[in-house]
Amino acid sequence: MRTALVFRVAVPATLLALAACASTPSSPDSSASSRATGPAVSTAKGATITLMPASGSLVSGKLSAAPIDDGVRITGEIGGLAPGSTHAIHIHGKGDCSAADATSAGGHFNPAQQPHGRVGSGPHHGGDMDNFVADARGVARVDVHALGVSLGGGDTDIGGRAIVVHAMPDDYVTQPAGNAGARVACGVIQLIP
């Protein structure tokens, strides 16, 4: 009689353990994008960003953000750069530019837990965007895209986070931030409802 009771308890426990294993991803390299909550959907019509100097630079600017089909388009003008210089621009996870070197903005915004890379060319952070180039006067007209992010909607929302301009270009390879150098300007993304 005692053997039958042990068998009745052991079988359900074994079945529960097997069921738990079946719901776990089968391989450790499963795509992190499958953990995302679905497509990025914006609920705000736009945002403004006022970039302020960081790390002792003179870099500043005004940017606007607007939703596009597959993410967010960021446009505007940044000045105080070296003539003809190339710079990285990223969305960072925290909307805090209070540190003198803008490290308070944290690392790149990365809701899908992807490696750093070039936007539109395989895996990349939600905050990864293409480099921009300053003109002969040290002014850049910026027109970049962040894919897989939104303005005002869900886990991919960039509202309230920070845009950071870096001293050097992004190499799109070096982890976790593209070897882009010091943070020379920072601004918080302010949503327009």
Automatic annotation (TrEMBL):
Q: Where is this region: Disordered?
A: 104-126
Which reaction(s) are listed as its catalytic activity?
2 superoxide + 2 H(+) = H2O2 + O2
What sort of enzyme, by top EC class, is this?
oxidoreductase
**PROSITE patterns listed in its UniProt record:** PROKAR_LIPOPROTEIN (PS51257), SOD_CU_ZN_1 (PS00087), SOD_CU_ZN_2 (PS00332)
**Per its UniProt record, what InterPro entries does this chain match?**
SOD-like_Cu/Zn_dom_sf (IPR036423), SOD_Cu/Zn_/chaperone (IPR024134), SOD_Cu/Zn_BS (IPR018152), SOD_Cu_Zn_dom (IPR001424)
Q: Which UniProt keywords apply?
A: Copper, Metal-binding, Oxidoreductase, Signal, Zinc
Gene Ontology molecular function: superoxide dismutase activity
Task: Report the superkingdom from the record.
Answer: Bacteria
EC number(s) in its UniProt entry?
1.15.1.1
Superoxide dismutase copper/zinc binding domain location is: 70-189
Cofactor binding notes: Binds 1 copper ion per subunit.
Functional summary from the UniProt entry: Destroys radicals which are normally produced within the cells and which are toxic to biological systems.
**Name used for this protein in its record:** Superoxide dismutase [Cu-Zn]
